[in-house]
Predict the structure of Transferrin receptor-like dimerisation domain-containing protein.
Amino acid sequence: MNLMGAILLLINMMGSFETNAVLLFASRGSTEWVEENKEILASRAVAYLNVDCAVGGPGFHVLATPQLDELIIKATQQVTDLDNSSQSIYESWTGSGSSPLIGRLGGGGSDYAAFVQHMGIPAADIAFGGAASVWELIALWLADEEFLPFDYLSYAKELEEIEASKGWTTWKKDHLKVREINDRLMMAERAFTDRDGLFGMSWYKHLIYGPSKHNDYGSQSFPGIDDAVKLAKTLHNAESWHRVQHEVWRDSRVIRQASLVLFGQLT
């Protein structure tokens, strides 16, 4: 099956469902489209599902921002592997008891870059011949769950405390409160961005996952720190090591911002 065939199959599979949120299918240059729709994406976009390599060969391969990990695992556990109908995609993916391997979206060479690195929008990129059913479940859950199915451990703890205090039912009836929680979940990833962007690559705003100057396509965690350390080791001067300290401070600040967003202390 080619890429367009997979997309059309996915649209057909989802055609009979009604969701709370809008599902937008698009096939065009992502960077240009994101630049043109920056304002509405910043305030309304929940997640981006990248399908430019959706019909990859055998074996399940996935990259994602961390809050989507559990959602992806859940979807693969519910979809049968087309190459082995006796087990789920998750069972084929993990083999004999190994942990699922989910890479990160740090590189700048794919369509997800504009969403993740420039806008701070959660995203997933799956390459697998039978990915359409997995995409269907993920998209439906993102669009139709009352609370966005993002897994932030600190925020999950807060929700568990609310449930334990029997306040959950009241919250679900309060549509403004539901909206507030979803806004906090949605904006947490945005908090990892910085308007000045990466040093020397200011278009890339995400400070936790992004391309490195030494590897524009590959994924790099804390790319600003990584580049600063490499430069300092080469120059061996006080100025370059001060820059390392500055990059550590910048990353610490956005992590703190994300924490404050999740706890409703920063909007």
